[in-house]
C-alpha cells in the first residue's frame, strides 16, 4: 500500500491460475494486465474473469514482452522467477526478464517480487541485469507454524524502483 498512489497500471508476470490478478483489481489497482506462457491458462483465466472490467490476459513470455516502453506503474511477480530458476538457461532468462521489466516500467515504477528465497540468495540475482534499480528494504513475512510443521518458510518481498538517474542502493 505505501507504494500505491491510486490509478496504477500493473503487469502480473507468470500469472498462472492464481487469484492474485483478481485480488489486485479488488484493491486499489485500476488496470491489471496478466501474462503467462501457457495459452491454456490465459484462456481459462480470461473466461473466469470475463465479467471483471479492467483485467487483460495475454499469452506472453516475460523474457521477451510485446508491450511498449514505459507502460506500467508496477510489475508484479509471485513465483515466476522461482520457476525460471528451475529451467534451462535460468540465469540468462532472469537477466532477460529483468531487462524487459525495466523497459516496460515507467521511471519511478516498481518491480515487486514475492518469493521464499532469502536476500543473501536473491539480491545479487536481482542486480544481475545491470539496470539502475533502487532497492527498498526487504519485507519479511514470517512463516506460519499453525500447521504443526517445523518447516515453516518465510516470504520475502523485494521492491525495486526504476531510477534512471540515481545511484543503486540496497537497504
Q: If you had to describe this structure to a student in words, what would you say it looks like?
A:
By secondary structure, the chain is an alpha/beta fold. Strands 1, 2, 3, 4, 5, 6, 7 and 8 form an 8-stranded mixed β-sheet that branches. Helix content is 27%, strand content 28%. The longest helix has 15 residues. It is globular, with a radius of gyration of 16 Å. It has 5 helices and 8 strands; from the N terminus they run βαβαββααβαβββ. The mean pLDDT is 90.
Structure at a glance:
The chain has 5 helices and 8 strands, in the order βαβαββααβαβββ. It is an alpha/beta fold.
Core attributes:
globular, 171 residues, alpha/beta, eight-stranded mixed beta sheet, 28% strand, 5 helices
Helix- and strand-based class? alpha/beta
The gross shape turns out to be globular
The residue ranges in which pLDDT falls below 50 over 5 or more consecutive positions are: none
The count of DSSP E runs of length 2 or more, i.e. the number of strands, is 8
Proportion of residues in helical segments: 25-40%
What is the terminal separation in angstroms? 19 Å
Mean pLDDT score, rounded?
Answer: 90
Largest sheet: 8 strands, mixed
Strand content: 25-35%
- Give the radius of gyration: 16 Å
Q: Number of helical runs?
A: 5
* H/E element sequence: EHEHEEHHEHEEE
Amino acid at each position: 500500500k505505501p507504494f500505491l498512489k491510486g490509478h496504477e497500471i500493473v503487469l502480473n508476470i507468470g500469472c498462472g491460475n492464481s487469484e492474485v490478478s483478481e485480488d489486485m483489481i479488488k484493491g486499489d489497482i485500476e488496470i491489471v494486465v496478466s501474462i503467462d506462457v501457457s495459452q491454456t491458462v490465459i484462456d481459462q483465466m480470461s473466461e473466469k474473469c470475463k465479467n471483471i472490467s479492467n483485467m487483460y490476459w495475454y499469452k506472453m513470455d516475460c523474457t521477451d514482452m510485446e508491450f511498449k516502453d514505459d507502460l506500467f506503474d508496477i510489475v508484479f511477480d509471485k513465483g515466476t522467477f522461482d520457476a525460471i530458476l528451475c529451467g534451462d538457461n535460468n540465469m540468462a532468462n532472469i537477466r532477460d526478464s529483468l531487462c524487459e521489466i525495466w523497459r516496460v516500467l515507467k521511471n519511478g515504477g516498481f518491480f515487486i517480487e514475492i518469493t521464499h528465497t532469502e536476500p543473501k540468495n536473491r539480491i545479487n540475482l536481482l542486480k544481475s541485469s545491470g539496470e539502475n534499480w533502487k532497492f527498498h528494504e526487504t519485507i519479511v513475512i514470517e512463516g506460519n507454524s499453525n500447521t504443526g510443521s517445523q518447516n515453516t518458510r518465510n516470504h520475502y518481498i523485494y521492491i525495486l524502483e526504476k531510477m534512471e538517474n540515481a545511484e543503486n542502493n540496497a537497504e
